[in-house]
Structure formats: structure tokens, C-alpha cells
Amino acid sequence: MKVLIVKDRNVLNTKFLAQFVNSLHAIGFDVTVVCDSYKKQGSGVSLDEGVNFINLNGKTNNFFINIYRFLRGKLFKATSRFKKLIAQEKPDIIICYFMVDLINVLYKQNHGIPVVMMMHCYPPVMLENLIRKKPYMKHIYSELLSRAAAIQVLMKSYEKTIEKFCIPKRVVTIPNEVVQIPEDQRTDLSVEKKTIIYVARIEKNGKRPHLLVEAFGRLFKDFPDWKLEFWGLQKYPAYERELMNLAATYGAQNNVFIKGYHPCIQEVYRQADIHAYPSAHEGFSLALADGMACGLPSLGFADAPAVNELIVDGHNGFLAKDLDDFTQKLRLLMSDKQLRIFLGHNAAKDVERYNPQAVIELWRRLIIEIVGENK
User: Which of 183, 195, 272, 345 has fewest C-beta within 10 Å?
Assistant: First the structure.
């Protein structure tokens, strides 16, 4: 069975996509990954041998072809290139990563091949942002989502949120795959590192790391030998300065570190005691789940979608109702090593349900069901 997976750009720096594609290939699907990107096909992850990768508009070693492709990418929509590719490849099913991918494979096309649309974020936030940026596209987004054979969401609670934007044929919940960490490779919480980590993009509105700096700053006089580390993609230097200035107001600037990207994030988890995650919302949050798989207790906000489903308050971490509560629960975690060990043990057990074999089996069943219905 032939599966075509479409992602507009940066295919080769998306850890989740590579893992997903390789897992599909490993269970016997004929998988082709396609993007349309003159510059951003990405780097850092690899696709297994046997997975076909196509960049419809990638740079070459030929100067004249590059000029042609650069201008073509600027002047013409990618839809026609995808239409031609679909006719050539004749896949049994198409899986789209971004909304732009759904447009590329369905807009003004009637190929009859079923399409699955992935929702990697909290759907209301993602779709409302798209509509706010391009209000004239609202009808098109709604129409294409309604044509999709299935819309995949990451949490069961998200299924009903899709109905606000379209009348879907089918909405299914399939979570992200979480790589399981053997017990002897998890963080050893019996050895206190006095380190709190945040692993996510360093961004203000959705991720809100300033709330963590505020909480840490309030506690710093009582825990002067603890440190706070931020690990993740850095895009906003002005905001990073804001974080450090906030730390300085509490005299904690020498104990707060903005580290950036780490190629092997499990090493970071193993050197920490607490994973604090102040996001306003998430789709699923692999960073949070990966930390749990390494045996870290977590702290988040009770009103944050996904965070409030992965973290079970008092069982594998804590959920806070506001910043004051967040600060007090961070204090509790910093004060009590045995509590951290208890919560971390439960965290690793709780994410076993998201093991790659179980998740890819859900995808296998969905693909076979949809293709069978189409035939």
C-alpha cells in the first residue's frame, strides 16, 4: 500500500515526522515523503533506507535550473506541481502535515485519493490563527477540511473542537509516539542535581517561560544553589533579554541559563530534577512526554490543553491554577526529593501507553480502513 506524506518544508529537521515515516515503512507501507521547498528541506534527522524523499522545487548543482526553480517558486503556486506528482505516484492515501499541504493536494483537484489531515497543535488556536492571518481563506479551509477523509487530532478532548470550523467526515485521536526509555537510562532522582529545566521553543505568548522565571525568582533566596535552564529553539533575542532582566530583578541572573538547542535532549533530561512547563496550550507536547519517559516529574498549568492531560496532578507532577500556585508547587518539588522520585516513577509508567508500536498500530488501522472504504 502506497502512502504519500506531504510537508511543505523542513522535512529533515522534524523529529516527529521522521519517526512517523520510518515507523510506517517498518510495518510494510510503501512511503514517499514530498515537500516543495527551494531552500528549507531541513537537516538533522534521517529517513530510513527504502523511504522515498522528493523535493519538487529543491536547489540543484545547476545554476540555470536553480534560477528557474527559484522564480517558479516565487511566481507560481505549488498546487500544479503536486497535482502532477500525485498523477505520477498514484498513492493509495495522502497524509498532510500543514494546512498549506491540504491546499496543495486538494484545492481544485479531484483525484479521488483519500486525504488525512494531521493537527499537530491545539486545533482552535491553530485554525483561528490561520483565519485571523488570512480571513479570505476561511471558506477554503473549511471546505477542504470537510473533504478530508479524516482529521487526526492528538487528544480525545480535541475532537469536538473541529466542528467549529467544518463538518468533518471523520475525526480520530492518535497521539504522538513517545520513545520509551529503559529504567537504567532515566534520570536518577536519588542524586540531586538541583536543576530545573524547560524544554521547548523560547517564545513568549504560547510557551510563556517568563512565568517560570518569575516563579524561580520568587523562590531564589530560599534555594540559592538551584539553577534554571532553558533548552529549545531560539528565535527572539529581545525576549531572551527580557527573561534575563526579569531574573536579575531577583538577583538570580547567574542561576538562569538560556542554553538553546541540544542534539541529544535525553542527556538534558538525565541531568535535571524537575521539568517545568508553563505553556498556555499544546497539541500533545513531545518535549513534556519525553521528559516524563526519562522519569522527570513535571509542573504545568491546569488550564493548558494537553499539558493538563499528560500531567495528572499529584500523581506524576503538579498542575497549578495560577502563578502563585505554580510558585508554591515548584517550591514543594524543589524541597522534597522523595516526592520527586515518586512522581517521576509514575510519569515514566504513564507514558508507556504512547509507545511507538501502539501508536503506529492506530495509524495502520486508520490507513487500511480509509483505503478500503475508498476502493
Answer: 183
